[in-house]
Every structure is written in C-alpha cells, then in structure tokens.
Automatic annotation (TrEMBL):
Provenance organism: Deefgea salmonis
CDD domains noted in UniProt: HTH_XRE (cd00093)
PROSITE patterns noted in UniProt: HTH_CROC1
Coiled coil: none
Organism ancestry: Bacteria, Pseudomonadati, Pseudomonadota, Betaproteobacteria, Neisseriales
Keywords linked to the UniProt accession: DNA-binding, Transcription, Transcription regulation
Domain (HTH cro/C1-type): residue spans on this chain: 44-80
Name by which UniProt lists this protein: Helix-turn-helix domain-containing protein
Length: 102
C-alpha cells in the first residue's frame, strides 16, 4: 500500500512540531544500547540490488523507463503482472537477468 503524501500545510505542521535534537539524541541512545533494527528493502529495490544493476540498466532490461522503475521502487505505482514475474526471477536468480543486461 503506497504511503499517503502530506499536503504542504500538513508537512509544515509536522516539521514545526519536531524536536530534531531530541530525535537525534534518542537515535544515538538506541544505537549505543544495541537497539538497532534493519529496515527491509521494498521488493523491487531488493530485486534490482541482487542483480547489481543501476536503475538505468535494470529499467532497460525490463523494458520500462527509469521513471517507471523509480515509481515502483517508491511505491507510487505497481508493476504489471509480467513485470512482477521478471522481478521474481531477478530476486530468485539474479544471474539469469544479469546475463541479458544491455
């Protein structure tokens, strides 16, 4: 599910209520205490990363524009069923797609 984009007014209100220094201090405290956690990559990003290809090379291989790939990676759009199949192949056997990289 894509994230809800904030309006300019909502973003301004959110930023005005933040205490960046306190947020950074809390982050450092968590790191020092070993309270870190990994944030999983979106599936499209993970599949591309496994191939080791740039966005330009990966999008060319899939036959889509870089903008389309970026929209998938940021969750603004969903890949077609055919593209989802290629992404599963890239995730499961990246060497297969690398073999056909332009």
């Amino acid at each position: 599910m894509p994230l809800k984009l904030l309006t300019d007014a909502e973003l301004t209100a959110f930023e005005a209520g933040r205490d960046i220094a306190a947020e950074l201090e809390e982050s450092v405290r968590q790191m020092l205490a070993g309270e870190t956690f990994a944030v999983p990559l979106p599936p499209v990003v993970a599949a591309r990363a496994k191939t080791g290809l740039s966005q330009a090379a990966f999008s060319a291989l899939l036959g889509v524009s870089v903008g389309t790939l970026q929209a998938w990676e940021h969750g603004r759009r969903n890949p077609s069923k055919a593209a989802q199949t290629l992404l599963r192949i890239a995730n499961d056997t990246p060497e297969i797609l690398r073999k056909y990289a332009l």
